[in-house]
Structure to design on (215 residues):
């Protein structure tokens, strides 16, 4: 059976795995984005706090994904929980770092002008600083998403959802007739999803970032 025949016979299962893969990454990115931006907002004004946040999230990223999921299994069990926790933690670094850089890069004169017209600190943050810091934050989100697309495949090790199951089944049956087709289908599916997500982020950037800021 060639690759295209394999896709024809397994397309329903592949679509289900692709949907679960994309859903897991999307939901974890939402949580990671909220946490990452909050951490950036809390720490960007302090040099040591910002460095601590960046160093901590960098340390998390150095933990091998198999080891991370393996350590989580005895605590939260198999399936979705270790997948969600691991992906959320791995997605934090680019968002935290870019949020801190973006917020620190806001022109101080604009913040002073907002203060001069009576804006409170929360209002300045919401109406001035975060909108101006949005382009680097969005870049961090894009980088995190691309990383998580690949890392999410490891979730199959803990009976998690997604295209990693196709890859692991192929690796477990190397030498069989469809082993290569399984690995190839799972890998190409992840690549396609990553490209689709990135295209969506480009569109979001065009819709949410004023042309002057993009330039």
């Amino acid at each position: 059976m060639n690759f295209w025949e394999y896709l024809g016979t397994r397309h329903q299962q592949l679509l289900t795995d692709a949907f679960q893969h994309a859903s897991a990454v999307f939901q974890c990115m939402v949580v990671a984005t909220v946490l990452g931006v909050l951490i950036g907002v809390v720490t960007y004004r302090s040099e040591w706090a910002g460095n601590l946040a960046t160093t901590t999230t960098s340390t998390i990223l150095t933990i091998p994904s198999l080891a991370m999921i393996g350590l989580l299994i005895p605590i939260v069990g198999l399936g979705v929980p270790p997948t969600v926790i691991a992906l959320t933690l791995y997605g934090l670094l680019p968002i935290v770092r870019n949020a801190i850089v973006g917020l620190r890069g806001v022109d101080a004169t604009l913040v002073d002008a907002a203060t001069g017209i009576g804006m409170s600190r929360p209002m300045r943050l919401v109406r001035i600083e975060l909108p101006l810091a949005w382009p680097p934050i969005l870049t961090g989100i894009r980088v995190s998403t691309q990383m998580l697309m690949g890392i999410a495949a490891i979730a199959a090790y803990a009976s998690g959802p997604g295209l990693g199951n196709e890859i692991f089944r192929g690796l477990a049956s190397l030498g069989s007739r469809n082993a290569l087709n399984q690995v190839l289908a799972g890998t190409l599916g992840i690549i396609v999803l990553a490209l689709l997500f990135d295209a969506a982020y480009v569109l979001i950037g065009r819709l949410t970032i004023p042309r002057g800021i993009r330039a």
